[in-house]
Amino acid sequence: MSTPPPVDSHDEPVDENLPARDDLFANPGLHEHQWRPTDVDPKAEKRAERQVAALFSLSAICTVLLLVSYFTIDSDDTVGNLGAQNVAFGLCLAGALLGIGIGIIQWARKLMADVEIVEYRHPASSSDEDRAATIQALNDGLEESGIGRRPLVRNSLLGAVGLLGLPAIVFLRDLGPTNAQVTENPPFPGSGLEHTLWEKGMRVVRDVVGTPIKPAEVEVGDLFNAEPEALFNGGEDGEPLEGVALQVGKSKGAVVLIRMEPDEIIPGKGRENWSVEGIVCYSKICTHVGCPISLNERKTHHLLCPCHQSTFDLADSGRVIFGPAARPLPQLALAVDDEGYLVAQSDFNEPVGPSFWERG
Fold this sequence. Notes:
single chain; alpha+beta; Rieske Iron-sulfur Protein; 13 strands; 2 domains; 5-stranded antiparallel beta sheet
């Protein structure tokens, strides 16, 4: 084992504009250096190296166990009131990260260089010589870490860190099917990016209570939340949707209704018959990042998103007039059925919610 380097070495470059260091600090306050057992005992050094490698190996084992638990534990199994799979994921991931973290700490405390350094501050920006010295110091630190001459530590660390990437790849399976797969075989009514629960003739009903709406029941200036009637009787047996199906349908089908004077509406091209007696209907989902919006400026007919202040003009086809949103609010074409209730002419003619890469 090499002889420990002298502690009180001061051979770094000195700024000529500074006074002599003895005039600055006669005693910088350093205590006498205490050598660690691993600095003077080769057996202790090897023992510490094996300990660090063991911690990295433990991390790798925990990562493998995490992957095994993903495939062997059913998502419906429980441990007490907790999901067994989630418990296994948490314990294994904690072990993997702790193994790497504690291993690096032990490596730094027992095996990396251990010397005291006094650094004098300079009032000016770093010179080219200082920058070169810094790069040299970084290279020296890499050399002092021993990563090049300790293959056991280096390889066990690389293996543990490399394995940690595998769970992320495996867990991508839980993102679900692609949009094309969902569109072809939707698991819930209105699933996929292209469609919602709305369809021709579906009534617009009040949120929460589910009662249908007649135009005469809406006052000028009123704005309220509404939903497609299918949320309340959209099941295959005519029963209300529940669970995931309800959340999927509501998250995409939620709308806001507002009534204004008919002559205040500026219909977009092809939207001349999308309103009923001054009542217009828009998606409630902001086109920026998908926040639900309903903050209405009654006099201006501007709808404000509370998340990032995107503002839409409901009198002008939901046009963006302020904020980060890049698209107008999707508008739902309205009509009246034989019983006088508001209904949709069709589904939205564009995807609702924030933009995504498949949109032209």
